[in-house]
Amino acid sequence: MAARPKNLNDTYIAPTYPYLKPIIVCGVIMALSARREVISPGSPLYDHLLSRSPNAIKTATWIQNGLFYFLFGGHAIESAMFTKRLNDHGVRLFSVSWFKWIGTCFVGGNFVFKYFDRAVGKAA
């Protein structure tokens, strides 16, 4: 007989080691990809690296745009998929804990899926 999934009863369990670090790194990369100031004139990255080559700023802009759309789009889709998992484990739609889980999933992506499975007892 299969083990019954753990019911979270509308609770949020904040990520811990070893999942917290990659979630934070993912959030920082998302934040940097959303800020054009990171590669504009006056920034350390521009002043020390990008200003040396005329094609460097074009490449950096292309990379930043690609990261932005890939991360924000992918994480939005993952967050929508995560809603079903939350429902299966007793987290009501639009409850406070649901918003916390979805926000964490939007920032952390796949790392939150792994952490959630561990938190509800699906994976060791």
Share of helix, binned: 55-70%
**Shape assignment:** elongated
| Percentage of residues in DSSP E strands | under 5%
Distance between the termini: 19 Å
Largest sheet: none
Give helix and strand order, one letter per element, not per position.
Answer: HHHHH
Number of helices: 5
Rounded to the nearest angstrom, the radius of gyration is 19 Å
- Helix-strand makeup class: mainly alpha
Instruction: Please report the total strand number as a whole number.
Output: 0
- What count of structural domains? 1
Low-confidence stretches: none
- Residue-averaged pLDDT: 91
Summarize the structure.
The protein is mainly α and 124 residues long.
What is the topological layout?
Elements lengths: L19 H14 L10 H5 L5 H35 L7 H13 L1 H10 L5
Helix pairs in contact: 1-3, 3-4
What does this structure look like?
This protein has 124 residues and is mainly alpha-helical. The protein has one domain (20-119). The protein has five helices and no strands. The protein is elongated.
Q: Which short descriptors sum up this protein?
A:
mainly alpha; 5 helices; elongated; 124 residues
